Every structure is written in C-alpha cells, then in structure tokens.
Amino acid sequence: MSVARILTVLAVLHAGYGVFVAYMHAGPSLRSWVDAVVAEEAEREEASWIGQHTPPSAPQWDPEWGLRRLRAGQSLRIAAAGLSRSGSTWQFNALRLMLQHAVSNYGADPHAQAHSAHGHTMDEVQGCLARQYCVVKVHEFLPDVLARVDAVFLTHRDPRDVLLSSAQKISSCLAYGTQPLLSAFTHYASWLPHACFDMRYESMI
C-alpha cells in the first residue's frame, strides 16, 4: 500500500472517530434524534429493496384465507422458512400455536389435530407434511417442501445483526460454519418469491 493511500485511510478514520466522539458527547435528546433518523433511513432503504426484489406475482397475505380453508375442511400446511438468526423460530412457534387454536376452534373436524416439525431435509419434515394440518420450519430452500405447502412465511433481519448473531450463537460467518451467511441469504432469496408474509425482525421486537 502506498504512503498516499495510507494517509488517506488514516484521514478517513480520523474523521470517523471525530464524528463518533461528537455523537458520544452529545446530549441524550440529540443522540435519540440521530438514532431515530438512522433507523428511519434504514427502514426506508429496506422497504425499497424488498419492493425492487419481490416479483409482482408474489401472493398477498389474507388473514381470513386460512380460516376459510379450515371451515371448508381443506388442508392447511405452512412452511416457516425465514432467514437464520432473524426470529424464524419465534415465527414458527407463533404459527404453530395459532394453527392449533384455529383447528380446535374453527375446523370442520372437531377431532382434527395440528402437527409441527422442523429440520433441514425433506425426510425430516415429510411425516408432518403428510398430515392435513401442519407447520414446518426449515431454512434451506427445498422445492419438495414448497410443492407440499399451502403458504410460506418468512423472516428477515439487518444482515449486520445476522452476521453478529451467527458468529456469537452458531459459530458461523460469511462463508464458513454450520449456517454460513452467504448460503442463508441464498436460501432466503429463493423462498422470497413464494412468501405470503415476510416479517421484519426489528418490527417483532
């Protein structure tokens, strides 16, 4: 690296450090305002990205759709296939409990039961998908699962927070570990065109 480039990098770091120091010494009200502006801009950029990358043919979520299927005695199989470390387990459990309640209280068959399963392969969830009412949790994009379910729910999160959580909780980084971030986002992108609802992690908390 040339001396000129080193000096440029040092100048940028110095300027960034100056902004950080000013931020840390600002009053609580100013820091709150800055944080709110940054969060609003991040949310606007995320909404713009999703709007640009979601195909027009993606199904729209209708809260009454599931109840209509239950009352008509039709099957209701759901995939919770959110991005790893983005609240996907929380969503899976919420869907599982809601389906249990709906089947017991609104289903055409009073003796019917809701089932659930989670895994990384079709073999691990196919038993559940053979049932009339089922919620499965997967991260990997599995075409066989997609072909068997009636609805797909997703979750997503700021990639920086996903990377940090992956490193802390499952010893994974961008390209290595049990659930590399690059692979996780590839699976998420494959599920996205088929999702009827994509929950933002930051909205959940």
Give a written overview of the molecule.
- The structure is a single chain.
- The chain is α/β, with parallel strands linked by helices and 205 residues long.
- It has helices spanning 3-25, 28-53, 65-71, 88-106, 122-129, 143-148, 159-169, 181-191, 201-204, and strands at residues 76-80, 115-118, 133-137, 151-156, 197-200.
- A 5-stranded parallel β-sheet has the order 2-3-1-4-5, sandwiched between helices.
- Strand 2 (115-118), helix 5 and strand 3 (133-137) form a beta-alpha-beta unit.
- The termini are far apart.
- Mean pLDDT is 80; it is low at 9-23.
Q: How are the SSEs ordered, and which strands pair?
A:
Blueprint: H1 3-25, H2 28-53, H3 65-71, E1 76-80, H4 88-106, E2 115-118, H5 122-129, E3 133-137, H6 143-148, E4 151-156, H7 159-169, H8 181-191, E5 197-200, H9 201-204
Parallel strand pairs: 1-3, 1-4, 2-3, 4-5
**Sheet with the most strands: spatial strand order:** 2-3-1-4-5
Overall shape: it is globular
CA-based gyration radius: 22 Å
Number of helices: 9
Beta fraction = 5-15%
Unreliable parts: 9-23
Structural class: alpha/beta
User: Sheet bearing the most strands, described?
Assistant: 5 strands, parallel
The H/E string reads HHHEHEHEHEHHEH
Keywords:
205 residues; 12% strand; alpha/beta; five-stranded parallel beta sheet
Task: Explain briefly what this protein structure is.
By secondary structure, this protein is α/β, with parallel strands linked by helices.
